[in-house]
Design goal:
Elements (H helix, E strand, L loop, with lengths): L2 H9 L5 H4 L3 H6 L15 H9 L6 E5 L2 H4 L20 E2 L4 H6 L2 H16 L4 E5 L1 H6 L3 H12 L3 E4 L8 H15 L13 E7 L10 H6 L3 E7 L4 H5 L6 E4 L2 H15 L3 E3 L5 H17 L5 H28 L3 E5 L4 H10 L4 E6 L5 H11 L5 E2 L4 H9 L5 E4 L4 H6 L4 E3 L10 H16 L3 H6 L19 H21 L1
Parallel strand pairs: 1-2, 1-3, 3-4, 5-6, 5-7, 7-8, 9-10, 9-12, 10-11, 12-13
Keywords: Nitrogen fixation
Family: Belongs to the NifD/NifK/NifE/NifN family.
GO molecular function, one term: nitrogenase activity
Length: about 500
């Protein structure tokens, strides 16, 4: 299938309820919004593919393109690994203008693959196309196929050059690479009726490790977590699992649907953010496993575990409920977090004054509408000046967002907490919920805010009374006279 046909097929995803509701002509147009100049600042398709595949920790990730496309792969998006560190190393063919003109791209790619395999002996090499190599027409697949035959190591081509679309499209193209070249290529000898796959979980700040022990207590085994802390052979044998749980449908819904079509693996979308959503995810996993042949006693064990964990976590959350009840939160994120974090915070009495729906599917937006009961609290995107006005006006007690908007909150002298991929604290599962609430409490009640909101010393008149510069005419006049005198003295010295 050509790249153009592959992209168009991803835009017509039949597992998406929105696409199913369209007529045939509307489906052909796809569901992607056209990119505007500069839109790559939010991430191109290459970036999206790298995000999905790089957390496969024992694989070598080779970028076929100019040096700048590789950038810095260290701690990609805060994903964590419990073992191999090869995924953190940077490999690139470092194409130059001379290589492009002289047609040396394919030779450099083959040589780079050989050097990586000889030096590191990885179980596989993932090779990523970039804008330059896609435009000059390097026979990407042929080189990967030849190298795989020659060195006896799987070499997986990833067709996601940046110009084909957005970061989200790159996520889906990475899933296609796994389907075409990895999943189903290895037959594990320890298959059991309790095997599950977790799709779209990136193990940010190690948060999947907060959930995995719960599954193990129930006797479930995670055959593959794609991609968080994954191993190549685990993903290659993922087709033997009995159930798939989809954590981020905007990224890998096509992967879940096609695994169901090819291997009959049922899937559902769930969340591990918040007490109720974590409990519901465990119930769904247990129910589907029983339907697929696991013992019915699993359902009882699941309910017992949920009751124990919920009682324990609510005891830990009770002190925070009293301190945070009624606090107002502005959530400026997107995707699955736009509704899953809303549900989690509402459980402790926090008021959500707004949540961004950027990068959210129509299904995500429907969940937000059901949770908030007011569409006015959901916004697709808010300009920085509007965010600042909202925070400076005291309409929110804290903003939860990514690092790019933290300075808006800090300028408005409002507490801020990182909820996106750069964070250093895990928020998934029961204990993750406690950690998220604890971090919000620490941020809101940090004494630094009282200090930064206090008037500056130069805003205090001699008598100690607080004077607002804009409102105290005498103070403003004195300041102007003092500035004029100082300026005159300086000019005289010159």
């Amino acid at each position: 299938m050509s790249s153009q046909a592959r992209v168009q097929a991803l835009f017509q995803e039949p597992a998406c309820e929105t696409n199913r509701a369209k007529d045939a002509n509307a489906r052909k147009k796809g569901c992607s919004k056209p990119l505007t100049p500069g839109a790559a600042a939010g991430g191109c398709a290459f970036d999206g593919a790298k995000i999905v595949l790089q957390p496969v920790t024992d694989v070598a990730h080779l970028i076929h393109g100019p040096l700048a496309c590789e950038g810095n792969s260290w701690d990609n998006r805060g994903a964590a690994s419990s073992g191999p560190g090869l995924w953190r190393m940077s490999f690139t063919t470092d194409l130059t203008e001379l290589d492009v003109v002289m047609g040396q791209g394919e030779k450099k790619l083959f040589k780079a693959i050989r050097e990586i395999i000889e030096a590191h002996r990885p179980p596989a090499v993932f090779v990523y196309a970039t804008c330059v190599t896609a435009l000059i027409g390097d026979d990407f697949d042929a080189v990967c196929f030849r190298a795989s035959e020659r060195f006896g190591t799987p070499v997986v081509p990833v067709h996601a050059p940046g110009f084909v679309g957005s970061k989200n499209l790159g996520n889906k193209l990475a899933g296609e690479a796994l389907l075409d070249h990895v999943i189903g290529s290895h037959e594990p000898d320890d298959v059991s009726p309790m095997d599950v796959n977790i799709l779209g979980e990136f193990n940010l700040a190690g948060e999947f490790w907060m959930v995995k022990p719960l599954l193990e207590k129930l006797g479930m085994r995670v055959r593959a977590c794609v991609p968080g802390d994954a191993r190549y052979l685990d993903i290659a044998g993922a087709h033997t699992a009995r159930v798939n749980m989809m954590v981020c449908s905007t990224a890998l819904i096509t992967l879940a649907r096609k695994m169901e079509e090819r291997w009959g693996i049922p899937w559902f979308e769930g969340s591990f953010y918040g007490v109720s959503d974590t409990s519901e995810a465990l119930r769904q996993l247990a129910t589907l496993l029983v339907r697929e042949g696991a013992e019915r006693a699993l359902l009882d064990r699941t309910e017992i575990l949920i009751a124990e964990e919920e009682a324990r976590v609510w005891r830990r959350l009770e002190p925070y409920r009293k301190r945070l009840s009624g606090k107002r939160v502005l959530l400026n994120t997107g995707g699955v977090k736009s509704w899953s974090v809303v549900a989690a915070l509402q459980e402790i009495g926090v008021e959500i004054v707004g949540t961004s729906t950027k990068k959210s599917t129509d299904e995500d937006k429907a969940r937000i509408k059901a949770l908030l009961k007011d569409e006015k609290h959901a916004f697709d995107a808010m300009a920085p000046r509007d965010l600042y006005a909202m925070l400076a006006g005291g309409k929110a007690d804290i903003m939860l967002s990514g690092g790019r908007t933290q300075f808006i909150a800090l300028k408005a002298k409002t507490p801020w907490l990182d909820i996106n991929q750069e964070r250093h604290h895990p928020y998934a599962g029961y204990d993750g919920m406690v950690e998220m609430v604890r971090q919000i409490d620490l941020a809101i009640h940090n004494p630094v805010w009282e200090a930064v909101r206090a008037p500056a010393p130069w805003d205090l008149p001699a008598g100690g009374r607080i004077a607002a510069v804009d409102d105290d005419a005498d103070f403003v006049a004195r300041t102007r006279r003092k500035f004029a005198a100082t300026t005159a003295d300086d000019m005289g010295e010159c």
